[in-house]
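Input structure tokens:
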């Protein structure tokens, strides 16, 4: 029914209006809305309904379900001025907005302190409709759905739009603007989706202190264009299932500023999803990203530049599977915070940063879900966390097994756990650094590998820091790259799947310092050094154990109290091991193998700490191995000598062999040399004795001192073709024994040389003590040398040769069944002096072929006691005596004088020599006659 405009009705209307509110019912449809009292309801231009209130409390116009049919469809647009419009339970239509988006074209215009409350309804906008608000106005849509096709929003000047359990799923036709301290709040499961555009754009702008708040399970999805943000804008995503998805990314508003300072906050289980890559999601200026609370997460790729920062804390999750970009020395922090649960980080894609950019992971659980690259100077700092680089592909360096650090980037684990799945691999290139420190460890995975190049470094640092486990294929360090194990850390290989080992090539290096350990099981893995690569082990407690191979010009150095296991080392080509400084060597042996193995122990005190004798072996029949003690001291303990075997060559050069009681040296198929002032020392002169088989022992140089004592019947023995040579003025003294048993230095199929002015002393009294020559053995004395023996025994197939004059050969009891050879020089021969001759049945052989004098009478054997020399009295060769003459006409004879055997030799010059002499005499006589005539 349509009401007439009568004075009564106007009075009624005015009374109602003065009450400050009006409720529309079916009977009110004919009401004149142009009353100008407290507020006015009147059509404006373009069928606009204008509702004006009287202040911030406003007046209200309420529309319920009953008023739906009374709504005049001509009123397409509504303006609220300090007024409230409540729509409840209705299907409500708003009119055409139009372009441009101005005040006059707004489908709904809120001004002042107005409020639009739409509840439990479907609100339909005609095409190109939009809501515009200003002042402190608030538009609230609760439990409702936006109808219509194209709907845009503008909120200015501290106004607010609230979607409460409502759905905005529209195509924007002219953009969405929230600025001037305005707010867009999406809450209680509401959904805000920008689907597309008509011809303008689907861009959303947050400008000038604007806020976007997504709460209580609400969802906000941007469209195919950027979310533009300018200074002091803020985005908050709070509560479980609350989510902001940036389908194209976000950036600064290009019409406002190039760099903006804004914030994004994710809390209490909220989520932000960045898409479009790091370049499409860049935090600039002093902007911040804060993610906190269990279940809170950020995924996708984003970037920080200028002084922007990001922090994840209190159980938040960072799903960075598309990478991260940190520019201009920015910092991103993911940390536990005050809450009990630690944040989790999922890594993938490429992480880049300028020099000085830092990604801090503190008390987190970080894992790699796909190929991950840390690049461009970025420093990843992992503290008190678990860092999982995941599993890989055993088929080769391809697929998902890469964890790559490149281009000067670094990953540092501090008191953290590196978790590697099966076939996990780390690749470093171009100056990258991977470091574990301060007690960091590796959680066991099946197999792992390294691929390191371009002067990159793998560093293990600090006591309790341990990198160990099984390796699955060859690991490589090349191009000046380095493995550093320092300050008590450990790098250990406990097993392998395949491959050669860990290979260092092209000037790569390994350094073990500060009491650290580099080790492998002997049957597990091999450290291989090629080219000009180096291994340096230094500092007390530092050590290297397990199989090592050095090739080409590779070199290993051990210094300042460090140790290296030399029991399983292969040295080829021009490679070497060099030990310097004090060294406590606990391994059972030095056993270098290879084509030209050399170990130099220089300027070192080599302390033998193992319970038994050390073994030095070569194990290469062609070239053997050499261990040089140079300007060093080998200090062995009680019962700790040296066993030299398998073609090894041990040289003491200006060095000291110092021992406690009862040491010995066993040399088998090898050699040992003391030279250049070397010395053997020990308590009670060392109780030292040799056991040599198929070997050479050389003691040489006038400054070399070898003064030792045998022990209780344990003499030195040389067998199987061995040689014992004292030369170049050296002095060797087997001076006495400790204990009562006799000591014999025996030669069995071996040779004993005392030459070059050297001295050998074996001065123990007693008929059974001394030197024994058996089974084709030989003793050679020459060069004005001295030999003093307690006793001498020579078997029938052995020999003693004394060459030239000036030699001193003295012995106690002489038992001789072999060949005694006197070899003259130009001046003559030397004498053998014996305290007694117990038995002499051998052959006497005198070689005078180089004698230069006219005659010689000398004692061959001088005995302090009588002996029957009758078998050796002769003037021509017999079965007992044979003489090689200098000239055919020379004569000789042997005879007895007291207890001694004497040799007389008269030289007769050859015919040519006589002719020369007669010619000289004739010439001299002629000259004398000529002088007489004058």
């Amino acid at each position: 029914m349509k009401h007439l405009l009568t004075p009564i009705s106007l009075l009624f209307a005015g009374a109602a209006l003065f009450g400050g509110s009006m409720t529309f019912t079916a009977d009110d449809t004919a009401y004149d809305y142009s009353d100008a009292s407290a507020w006015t309801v009147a059509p404006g231009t373009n069928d606009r309904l204008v509702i004006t209130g009287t202040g911030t409390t406003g007046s209200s116009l309420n529309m319920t379900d009953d008023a739906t049919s009374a709504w005049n469809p001509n009123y397409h647009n509504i303006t609220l001025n300090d007024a409230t419009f409540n729509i409840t339970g209705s299907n409500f239509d708003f009119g055409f907005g139009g372009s441009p988006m101005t005040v006059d074209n707004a489908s709904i215009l809120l001004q002042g302190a107005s409020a639009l409350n739409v509840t439990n309804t479907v609100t339909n906008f005609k095409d190109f409709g939009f809501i515009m608000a200003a002042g402190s106005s608030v538009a609230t849509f609760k439990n409702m759905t936006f109808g219509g096709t194209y709907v845009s929003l503008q909120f200015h000047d501290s106004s607010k739009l609230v979607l409460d359990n409502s759905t905005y799923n529209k195509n924007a036709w002219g953009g969405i603007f929230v600025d001037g301290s305005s707010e867009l709040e999406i809450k209680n499961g509401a959904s805000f989706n920008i689907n597309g555009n008509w011809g303008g754009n689907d861009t959303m702008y947050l400008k000038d202190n604007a806020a976007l708040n997504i709460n209580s399970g609400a969802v906000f999805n941007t469209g195919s264009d950027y979310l533009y943000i300018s200074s002091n804008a803020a985005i908050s995503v709070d509560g479980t299932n609350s989510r902001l998805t940036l389908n194209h990314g976000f950036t600064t508003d290009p019409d406002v500023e190039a760099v903006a300072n804004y914030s994004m906050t994710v809390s209490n289980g909220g989520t932000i999803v960045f898409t479009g890559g790091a370049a499409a999601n860049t935090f600039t200026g002093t902007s911040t990203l804060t993610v906190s609370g269990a279940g809170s997460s950020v995924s996708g790729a984003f970037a920080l530049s200028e002084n922007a920062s990001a922090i994840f804390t209190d159980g938040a999750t960072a799903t960075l599977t598309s990478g991260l970009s940190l520019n201009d020395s920015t910092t991103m922090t993911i940390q536990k915070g005050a809450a009990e649960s630690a944040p989790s980080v999922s890594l993938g894609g490429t992480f880049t940063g300028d020099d000085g950019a830092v990604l801090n992971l503190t008390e987190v659980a970080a894992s790699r879900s796909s190929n991950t690259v840390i690049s461009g100077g970025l420093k990843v700092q992992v503290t008190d966390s678990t860092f999982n680089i995941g599993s890989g592909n055993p088929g080769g360096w391809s697929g998902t097994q890469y964890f790559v650090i490149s281009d000067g980037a670094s990953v540092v684990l501090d008191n953290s756990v590196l978790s590697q799945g099966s076939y996990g691999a780390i690749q470093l290139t171009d100056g990258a650094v991977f470091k574990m420190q301060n007690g960091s460890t590796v959680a066991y995975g099946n197999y792992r590998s390294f691929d390191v190049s371009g002067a990159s470094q793998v560093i293990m640092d600090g006591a309790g820091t341990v990198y160990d486990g099984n390796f699955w294929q060859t690991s490589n360090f090349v191009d000046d790259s380095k493995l550093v194990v320092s300050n008590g850390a450990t790098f250990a290989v406990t097993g392998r799947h395949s491959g050669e080992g860990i290979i260092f090539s092209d000037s790569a290096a390994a350094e073990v310092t500060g009491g650290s350990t580099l080790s492998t099981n002997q049957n597990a893995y091999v450290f291989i050094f090629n080219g000009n690569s180096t291994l340096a082990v230094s500092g007390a407690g530092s050590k290297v154990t397990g199989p090592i191979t050095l090739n080409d010009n590779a070199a290993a150095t051990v210094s300042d109290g460090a140790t290296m296991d030399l029991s399983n080392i292969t040295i080829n080509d021009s490679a070497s091991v060099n030990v310097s400084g004090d060294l406590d060597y606990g391994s059972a042996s030095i056993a270098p193998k290879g084509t030209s193995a050399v170990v130099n122990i220089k300027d070192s005190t080599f302390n033998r700490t193992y319970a038994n004798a050390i073994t030095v072996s070569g194990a290469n029949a062609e070239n053997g191995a050499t261990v040089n003690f140079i300007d060093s001291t080998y200090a062995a303990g009680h019962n700790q000598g040296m066993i030299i075997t398998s073609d090894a060559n041990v040289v003491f050069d200006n060095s000291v062999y110092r021992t406690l009681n009862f040491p010995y040296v066993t040399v088998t198929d090898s050699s040992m040399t003391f030279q250049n002032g070397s010395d053997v020392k020990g308590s009670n002169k060392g109780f030292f004795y040799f056991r040599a088989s198929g070997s050479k022992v050389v003691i040489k140089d006038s400054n070399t001192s070898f003064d030792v004592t045998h022990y209780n019947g344990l003499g030195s023995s040389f067998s199987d073709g061995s040689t014992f040579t004292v030369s170049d003025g050296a002095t060797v003294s087997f001076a006495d024994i400790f204990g009562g048993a006799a000591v014999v230095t025996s030669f069995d199929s071996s040779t004993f040389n005392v030459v070059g002015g050297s001295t050998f002393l074996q001065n123990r009294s007693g008929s059974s003590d001394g030197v024994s020559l058996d089974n084709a053995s030989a003793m050679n004395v020459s060069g004005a040398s001295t030999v003093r023996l307690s006793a001498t025994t020579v078997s029938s197939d052995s020999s003693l040769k004394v060459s030239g004059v000036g030699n001193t050969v003295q012995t106690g009891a002489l038992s001789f069944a072999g060949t005694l050879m006197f070899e003259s020089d130009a001046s003559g021969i030397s004498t053998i002096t014996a305290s007694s001759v117990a038995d002499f049945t051998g052959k006497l052989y005198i070689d005078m072929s180089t004698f230069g004098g006219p005659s010689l009478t000398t004692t061959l054997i001088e005995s302090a006691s009588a002996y029957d020399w009758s078998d050796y009295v002769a003037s021509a060769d017999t079965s007992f005596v044979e003489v090689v003459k200098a000239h055919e006409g020379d004569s000789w004879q042997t005879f007895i004088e007291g207890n001694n055997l004497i040799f007389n030799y008269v030289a007769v010059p050859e015919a040519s020599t006589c002719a020369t002499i007669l010619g000289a005499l004739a010439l001299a006589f002629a000259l004398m006659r000529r002088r007489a005539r004058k």
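The mean pLDDT is 81. The radius of gyration is 52 Å.
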